[in-house]
Amino acid sequence: MRLFVGLPFPHPVRRELLLVRKGLERQAVKGKFTDVRNFHLTLAFLGEVAQERLPAAFAALEAAPMGPLELRFQRVGCFPGGIWFLSPEPCPALMEGQERLARALRREGFSLPEQGYVPHLTLGRKVVFPPGREPAPLLGRAIAA
Predict the structure, then answer these.
(1) Whole-model pTM?
(2) What is residue 8's three-state secondary structure?
(3) Largest CA distance in the chain
(4) 3 - beta bridge partners?
(5) What is the tens place of the pLDDT at every residue in 16-32?
(6) Phi/psi zone of residue 82: left (φ > 0), alpha (ψ -120 to 50 degrees), beta?
(7) Which helix (H) or strand (E) holds 101?
(8) What is the rounded distance in angstroms from the CA atom of residue 57 to the CA atom of residue 5?
(9) 120, 92, 112, 108: which is closest to 7 by C-alpha?
(10) 116 Cβ partners below 8 Å, 6+ apart?
(11) How many other C-beta atoms lie within 10 A of the C-beta of residue 32?
């Protein structure tokens, strides 16, 4: 099964995030857009994991608890391949918690990318705009989560 560790958002925040996603979708020619029920902030992507490895994943989660966070999504960006995302303002507590989780997962034998963690919420994949056009601004103000 494909596993990741992510932070979900309460309904009122998801509603605000959906408005941004819909703005992106309206301007695109095509793309695969994230369902509002799947909005999350990924902390670690584990990939394909055998069911018998689940106890090790849970042990890592228990070894790296994360307290409440205050996030403010304030930037829209694009990774290669047309992956559009929202990213939060810098949040030291998020970065420290993610690093603790990554260390705990590695101790349990999980392989994680070595490149730096980039906190983001994926809005859409393989998003394409009309030739020569980039999307108009999508975010009028920061979204508190």
Answers:
(1) 0.87
(2) strand
(3) 49
(4) 47
(5) 999 999 999 999 999 99
(6) left
(7) helix 92-107
(8) 9
(9) 120
(10) none
(11) 12
Please tell me the distance from the alpha carbon of residue 69 to that of residue 61, in angstroms, as a whole number.
16
Helices 92-107 and 54-63, axial angle in degrees (round to 10): 140
Answer for the pair 41, 71: CB distance below 8 angstroms, yes or no: yes
Q: What is the DSSP letter of 64?
A: S
Give the integer Cα–Cα distance in Å for 135 and 40: 23
Q: What are the pLDDT digits (tens) for 46-73?
A: 999 999 999 999 999 999 999 899 999 9
- Tokens 């975010």 identify what position? 139
- Whole-angstrom distance, CA of residue 126 vs CA of residue 66: 32
Coil, helix or strand at residue 111:
coil
For residue 121, the surrounding DSSP H or E stretch is strand 121-128
